[in-house]
Amino acid sequence: MPENSAEQNARLVKNAEEYYRSMFSDRVSSWNLRDRQMAETLDSLVKHLNSHIHR
Fold first, then answer.
1. Count of beta carbons in the 10 Å neighbourhood of residue 13
2. Domain ranges (residues) in the chain
3. What band does 3 get if pLDDT is binned at 50, 70 and 90?
4. Angle between helices 2-25 and 27-53 (to 10 degrees)
5. What pLDDT does residue 2 have?
6. Which domain of life is it from (predicted)?
7. Which residue of 7, 39, 42, 53 lies most exposed, with the fewest beta carbons within 10 A?
8. 3-state SS record for the chain
9. Distance between CA atoms of 49 and 43, rounded to whole angstroms?
């Protein structure tokens, strides 16, 4: 699972920067971005967990 943690941490840093930049320029789009990033995170987690279940 360390490889998934590294990927998730990298994604978090990238997404955080993108979110904070949008938050200060356009609040509506920042909420849309936040929702999209949360959905991507959940999709990634499900994919990771499924790969470990089906070994």
1. 10
2. 2-53
3. low
4. 170
5. 57
6. Bacteria
7. 53
8. CHHHHHHHHHHHHHHHHHHHHHHHHCHHHHHHHHHHHHHHHHHHHHHHHHHHHCC
9. 10
Question: What's the whole-model pTM score?
Answer: 0.61
Tokens at 4, concatenated: 């998934």
**The token pair that represents 43 in the structure block:** 């999709």
**pLDDT tens digits, 6-46:** 888 888 888 888 888 887 886 677 778 888 888 988 998 89
CA distance 15 to 35: 11
Q: Calculate Rg over the CA atoms of the chain.
A: 13
